[in-house]
């Protein structure tokens, strides 16, 4: 019996979470798996933030909060957007949610209906396409190759726009590629978008602080389109707070109100304690963020050296986030025993079952030529993981 709705039947599970779960299951069976699949900082949440949460518990911040979050938190985010990004958003233009994931989904569910098109440059984060499907829209995937640094050009954007285009999802720094759009590149996209006043831009900036080239740029900085940009961000990555579930969207008032209505009907406010913790994160001395960023940068360099030593992988240097996304298609068509590698999924399964290293197939991100590995883990884990990967890939003939 299948009692599920078409909406559910059409939805794919999250490949990142599925791979991470698979790796945990193997670990529970006693297999020594190194997990490079899920993307989350391995650091502990900074003490100042934890203390603020304890204080909030003790001071009984245990009641429902306004649906979009405490005003004090939205004020702190508004100040952050002004100070760090030069963006003016009143607290009323901000809504906090259960992670940036919910913020992206809220925005899509608020604006996308049956048949509406959403442009998504590939490689893209796994959940975007599925969220569009959930909203009964149509994802229009724009393939951006490794030779263009995985970034969409203005010409590609313009070619993908049709009268049905309702939104664009942009992610910079990017998961999975680590690519970062510079100001000129964003301006090029903004110039195209300025000609199409009905398109909403969802700008996912969750990796803002994991940037190795400096100077985060938001597409919301361009006055000609700012009224149509929804900036999504949160505390998961910058402050090592993935489990706390606190993200936000800053955008035009009409869209924030729509998300408020939607959220008010299905999840209400995000956790009151997480909100208090996030407020402390935005107000504290930001040096722990820089410490973590530096550690990621060091690991990025380590991993690039390790990957360079594997002849079949071709990797560009990521400018941000904590993933490498090497091209691995040189292994397609090769075999080891009765295992034949035909695509990135076969390769990810091979690496998991034979090398005991969990990664995520590029196909989950819309690029079957590549494979994603997170380097948000210790140097020792990274060295051992890439030693295993190198050894087991060399067996493929
Ligand atoms: N956007 C991107 C690109 C991500 O990689 C993630 C990671 N989960 C999210 C959004 C969601 O983050 P959060 O934990 O705040 O929901
Ligand atoms: N963003 C992370 C990843 O891509 C977390 C898992 C998820 O929510 O997809 O691995």
Can you walk through the features of this model?
There is one protein chain. With 397 residues, the chain is α/β, with parallel strands linked by helices. The protein has two domains: 145 residues, Aspartate Aminotransferase, domain 1 (Alpha-Beta Complex); 221 residues, Aspartate Aminotransferase, domain 2. The chain is 41% helix and 14% strand. It contains 13 helices and 14 strands. The structure holds 4'-deoxy-4'-aminopyridoxal-5'-phosphate (PMP) and glutamic acid (GLU). Glutamic acid binds next to α2 and α6.
SSE arrangement:
Layout: H1 6-9, H2 15-28, E1 34-35, H3 47-58, H4 71-85, E2 94-97, H5 99-111, E3 117-122, H6 126-134, E4 138-143, H7 154-160, E5 165-171, H8 183-194, E6 200-204, E7 229-234, E8 247-250, H9 253-266, H10 272-283, H11 287-308, E9 323-324, E10 335-336, E11 339-340, H12 344-355, E12 357-358, E13 360-361, E14 371-374, H13 379-393
Parallel strand pairs: 1-12, 3-4, 3-5, 5-6, 6-7
Antiparallel strand pairs: 2-8, 7-8, 9-14, 10-11, 13-14
Helix pairs in contact: 3-10, 4-10, 5-6, 5-9, 7-8, 11-13
Bound molecules: 4'-deoxy-4'-aminopyridoxal-5'-phosphate (PMP) and glutamic acid.
Task: Return the structural class.
Answer: alpha/beta
* Distance between the amino and carboxyl termini: 44 Å
Largest sheet: 7 strands, mixed
Strand content: 5-15%
User: What small ligands are held by the chains?
Assistant: 4'-deoxy-4'-aminopyridoxal-5'-phosphate, glutamic acid
Strand arrangement, largest sheet? Answer: 2-8-7-6-5-3-4
Q: Uncertain segments of ≥5 residues (pLDDT<50)?
A: none
Strand tally is 14
Number of domains: 2
CATH architecture assignment name of the largest domain: 3-Layer(aba) Sandwich
In DSSP terms (H or I, runs of 4 or more residues), the helix count works out at: 13
Mean pLDDT, nearest integer?
Answer: 97
Name of the CATH class of the largest domain: Alpha Beta
The CATH homologous superfamily of the largest domain is termed Type I PLP-dependent aspartate aminotransferase-like (Major domain)
- Topology as a string of helices (H) and strands (E): HHEHHEHEHEHEHEEEHHHEEEHEEEH
How large is the radius of gyration?
21 Å
Q: What fold name goes in the CATH topology slot of the largest domain?
A: Aspartate Aminotransferase, domain 2
